[in-house]
Amino acid sequence: MTMDTSPQRPRRAKIDDVAELAGVSTKTVSRVLNNEPNVRAETRERVKAAAKKLSYSPDLSARSLAGQRSYMFALFYDTISEGYLSKFQSGALDRCRDRTYHLMVGRFDVEAADVVEQIVQAAERTRVDGVLLLPPLSDHPHIGERLWAAGIACVLIAPSNPQGSMPFIDLDDMNAARTLTGHFLKQGHTRIGFIEGHTAHGAAALRRLGYLAALEDAGLPIDPDLLVQGWFTVASGRLAAERLLALNSPPTAIFASNDEMAAGAEIVIFEHGLSVPRDISVVGFDDSLLASTASPPLTTVRQPIEEMAQGAVDLLIEVNRKGVAGYDVTAESRRYDFELVVRQSTVPGFGEKA
Amino acid sequence: MTMDTSPQRPRRAKIDDVAELAGVSTKTVSRVLNNEPNVRAETRERVKAAAKKLSYSPDLSARSLAGQRSYMFALFYDTISEGYLSKFQSGALDRCRDRTYHLMVGRFDVEAADVVEQIVQAAERTRVDGVLLLPPLSDHPHIGERLWAAGIACVLIAPSNPQGSMPFIDLDDMNAARTLTGHFLKQGHTRIGFIEGHTAHGAAALRRLGYLAALEDAGLPIDPDLLVQGWFTVASGRLAAERLLALNSPPTAIFASNDEMAAGAEIVIFEHGLSVPRDISVVGFDDSLLASTASPPLTTVRQPIEEMAQGAVDLLIEVNRKGVAGYDVTAESRRYDFELVVRQSTVPGFGEKA
DNA sequence: TATACGATTGACAGCGCTGTCATTTTTCAG
DNA sequence: CTGAAAAATGACAGCGCTGTCAATCGTATA
Fold it and tell me: How many angstroms from the chain centroid is the CA of residue B264?
């Protein structure tokens, strides 16, 4: 006489169930699930069918406890723009899904004395297979090192000064700035104001270099009065624009190091009774949401953030595939191309009129 | 004679190491770490000291495999504004850190035929202790149910129509809209235009109700011409504003159901040679980044998104503490207060001048 | 047909913790 | 001071997988 236990939730399928249904050992099921070689094609199919029938999906905790892989990556960040984070995260999740990985997130204070320990510990206790470090964490001199030293793969995203010793993903900020400046030059502008970004931000310096390089390419002199400091905020953009407009010979075009500052500049120009782009052209940088909603919409440069995130995840997967020990860093890093987005804040053919 | 193995990474401390150093069994260490009762104070201290000395932190995979808790929550979403996601995530992470929980994220297509299965499976295989469902996932009729049925706690964030049967966290959208409209009324406005939000968004309907209720409170008639459809985008806000300005008797104030549409309205008003707030006052909703960068900065309503996220995490922790089976839903749900943010797009005392 | 060798498969241990339950120690009434 | 109950602690199994290594199968070669 059998005891029938009270009705309860249908138990989630385990590897043993699949093994039994397929008539093989759990180890063979494991082989199939992990795409290991040396399984007869017929057996492989049988196991796959059984797994599907039971809608089996391996338990991540058990996997990571028993094996080398956790199928989980971590995305760590500190303060970063909402748009950048959400786009990057979205791109990373897309690729993770494709490769059946999962993603955990964490926010850490770069300034904390023990950031490194906090991060390494978080990565170790969760057994993540790799870590994505967003700026400004990617600029920290030790986080990446310590992670690799602990045997955890890690990619620096847009580090200010990429070290050859660690894989990274970034954008060619300098060339983008050079192109944007070139856009002005082609339209005949010769007095181009430049609003610098936050001094602690590596990309800000690169954008400045691109601006200077473009002027040099064109054989134009550099007027120090045309470079004013900003801090990546709308307010700082307004202040900087005020200073540029107050010059004896104000610029006919303004290059702001990001969209926020560009939007601030547009407002100030309007307040001075001038018009963008008729009187003064403006460009931003980043192609944030603000760029398309500003009035007029900003000509800017788009970073392929989602693609960069996907590339970063691919890179982590690749490193894990080869084994965290024997990676060839130099071959892994990648620099992405930007895209010039022309909108109504710059007037095409301005120069031709002259 | 001892063999010295080649130099290698210092091994991460395990519970056995702590037990040995403290001179107790691993089970006692476990008790201390999990704040279980029945450990002598002196023993507790000894264990804590040992753990600290070895900078021990328990392995999450092992924990979740062996015990009931994984110390990991999941934040699942689909399309949602960048600001909402990043603020919510940030708030959730803050609380998770305080309570030594971790957070994984996932993005799912609400429209997919098998969303429910995808989500349940993702939650089961990662053994998360609870799931936070952001809109529009929180509006799906089955996701929450299935999660609870599978024994996984879950909180709906800002669901369009909260079910009594499931814990949720939301904002009193209707009252917020009523307050915002009241702000206009107090300034003496009597013709107030309303730009509606996306019809599929539950909050849009609530905001409309709040607007209508405020007019009724004031004994004002409702003019159907003053209500125009929008879709939560800047472009739709522009279109709606055009229609309002084209009326024989245009409104002296415009209530847009979100900041994007309000910003669009401001641009249109400016293009018509009118001034905000001198000629027409405007309010938005959400207090997004755009609200403070629009020109002029928008009077709007702020949602305490971070706090709501913290509340949601607390709720999950609470449910887990009591056991997922015996929760009292009605006691858990919580409605948060909004905050009126007055900026330069509305003119205080407008009415008094009359 | 017999032998060797690679391809395929399975037995079994164990990853680092916690749940269960037995055992020891302490406490306190009588 | 004794016994019983409560408090404190530990022994041990096992969570669901994968790594190791031994066993078995298939087949090409002599």
Answer: 25
Residues of chain B with C-beta less than 8 angstroms from the C-beta of A324: none
The answer to whether the CB of B241 falls within 8 A of the CB of B268 is: yes
**What order do you get walking across the sheet with A168-171 strand by strand?**
A334-336, A168-171, A153-157, A130-133, A72-77, A102-107, B102-107, B72-77, B130-133, B153-157, B168-171, B334-336
Give the closest nucleotide to B43 (alpha carbon vs C1'). Answer: D8
pTM beyond 0.85: yes
* A93 at B interface, C-beta within 8 A: yes
Nearest nucleotide (CA of A16 to C1'): D16
- The full length of chain A comes to 354
Quick one: what percent of chain B has pLDDT higher than 90? 79
Asked if B93 and A102 come within 8 Å (Cβ–Cβ), the reply is no
- Buried-exposed string B91-103: b where 16+ CB fall within 10 A, e elsewhere: bbbebbbeeebbb
Chain A nearest-CA residue for B89: A105
Residue B232 phi, psi (nearest 5)? 70, 10
pLDDT at B352: 38
Q: Write down the pLDDT at residue A38.
A: 92
Distance CA A232, CA B123 (A): 39
CB contact under 8 A, A295 and B260: no
| B124 CA, C21 C1': Å apart | 29
Contact B319, B167 (CB under 8 A): yes
- Residue range B201-241, pLDDT digits in tens: 788 999 999 999 999 999 999 999 999 999 998 889 999 99
pLDDT of residue A164: 73
- A191 CA: distance to closest CA in chain B (Å): 27
List, in order, residues 6 or more apart from B334 with CB less than 8 Å away: B169, B311, B315
Give A6's contacts in chain B (Cβ within 8 Å).
none
Q: What pLDDT is recorded for position B348?
A: 58
Q: Is pLDDT above 70 for B34?
A: yes
Q: Which residues contact B48 (CB under 8 A, 6 or more apart)?
A: B32
In chain A, which residues have pLDDT < 70? 1-9, 325-331, 348-354
C-alpha A259/C-alpha A295 separation (Å) is: 12
Burial B192-208 (b: 16+ CB within 10 A, else e): bbbbbbbeebbbbbbbb
The sign one gets for the Cα dihedral B20, B24, B25, B27 is negative
Tell whether A86 is within 8 A of chain B (Cβ): yes
Q: Between the CA of B86 and the C1' of D5, what is the distance in angstroms?
A: 55
Alpha-carbon span B228 to B255, nearest angstrom: 11
B151–chain A Cβ distance below 8 A for any pair: yes
* Mutation site, B70, B107, B152, B292, interface A, largest A CB count within 10 A: B107
First to last CA, chain B: 101
Q: Are strands B102-107 and A102-107 parallel, antiparallel or unpaired?
A: antiparallel
Separation of alpha carbons A102 and B20, rounded Å: 35
Per-residue pLDDT averaged across B100-115, rounded? 97
A68 touches chain B (CB under 8 A): no
Q: What is the pLDDT of residue B4?
A: 43
